[in-house]
Amino acid sequence: MKKVTIYTDGxxxxxxxxxxxxxxxxxxxxxxxxxxGDPQTTNNKMELTGVIEALRLLKEPCEVDLYSDSKYVIDxxxxxxxxGWKARGWKKAxxxxxxxxxxxxxxxxxxxxxxxxxxxxxxxxDNPKNNRCDELAVAAYQKYK
Length: 145
Prior knowledge:
It is a single chain. The protein has a five-stranded mixed β-sheet. The mean pLDDT is about 95. The radius of gyration is 15 Å and the shape is globular. The longest helix is centred in the C-terminal third of the chain and has 15 residues, at about 130-140. The protein is built from five helices and five strands; from the N terminus they run βββαβαααβα. The protein is an alpha/beta fold.
């Protein structure tokens, strides 16, 4: 299985508001940047979209180390929240609706295909790849302002 490293970030101007996401994929000596945005979205949707779009780009099952500054994304997967929400019909433990079910469902499907290890990094700190993803995300949402 190919080993890939992915960095992702999402950003929003207002929440909700114009949003963007950025991702960097690394495979051996190769590196690819990608980004996109939405004129009316939320920060959490953009964080999830960055992860989803990066994983969708992989053409075969891969072993992935994924770095994100989003506790929402990291905890949603590593703490089993998303799987629990799905099992309960997209309801949280307190019976209220889980947010962003279509995004979580897409991500869970990709996690069935790839082997992904999630790593949290502090945002806006000393991680150059995370900082670059933030730049990509901000540039993407600025197209809608």
